[in-house]
Amino acid sequence: MSTAFDLVDINQEQFNVDLGIKGRRALVCASSKGLGRACAAALAAEGVHVTMTARGAEALAQAAADLRKLYPEVEITEVAGDITTPEGRAAALAACPSPDILVNNAGGPPPGDFRNWTRDDWIKALDANMLTPIELIKATVDGMIERKFGRIVNITSAAVKAPIDVLGLSNGARSGLTGFVAGLSRKTVRHNVTINALLPGPFDTDRLRTVSAGQSKASGIPVEEIMNKRMGENPAGRFGDPEEFGLACAFLCGAKAGFITGQNLLLDGGAFPGTF
């Protein structure tokens, strides 16, 4: 008996995925390198006009130039500045005042022992990884609600689900953001505005190397040995590719992802050992 899914009847063109966000505008924070850059690239590939931010002007200019070359049909705007400061946020929002898509991202705090952290260390971590995303959401969410479309993705960390002892500053700040979003995301979804988080595990980025270098310094074990051991212990037997992360971000930003909100998507190669 023939069904709609008979292989002989499949029209391959039906399986081409169009996320339905071509022409939308996105503000992607900390996007000159690593996971932020991967998100910017994945959105640009979908025809989204992207405003990129980062502290390092040279790296940002190169990342923006690369995307313009790959996707000449979209507008790529770069804003150099520290998104964790009021001035940096003001500059980014001046360049992209009404984003349809907001990808919150900022470099994580350094590893260490909580006994050595001062109040200033904690405030800096909270400003970067909790309060800055909240400020950007506050500045943009009402416009999204009015336009009946908005996608907010917070890049947090797998440490939100499985805390890493040496990353206590990150554990605390990012978990605070997650708790805040859990409530807000249930209020905005009625207006087709979703707020979700991507929780990266070990991806092949500068951040991973920085953490590994800190562990190497503390233990005396070579960085390469630490990284190879961590890679081998992951069920996937490897580190994540930033491109994989960017595609997950683009999916959550898609027009048909409006029924997904308040979720924390773990991308860790299966490292978290739980069922739920």
From TrEMBL:
One MF annotation (Gene Ontology) recorded for this entry: 3-oxoacyl-[acyl-carrier-protein] reductase (NADPH) activity
Keyword Oxidoreductase among UniProt keywords: yes
Highest taxon of the lineage: Bacteria
Keywords (A to Z) from UniProt: Oxidoreductase
SUPFAM superfamilies registered for this protein in UniProt: NAD(P)-binding Rossmann-fold domains
Gene3D superfamilies: NAD(P)-binding Rossmann-like Domain (3.40.50.720)
Similarity comment text for this entry: Belongs to the short-chain dehydrogenases/reductases (SDR) family.
Name of the protein: 3-oxoacyl-[acyl-carrier protein] reductase
Species whose genome carries this gene: Rhodopseudomonas rhenobacensis
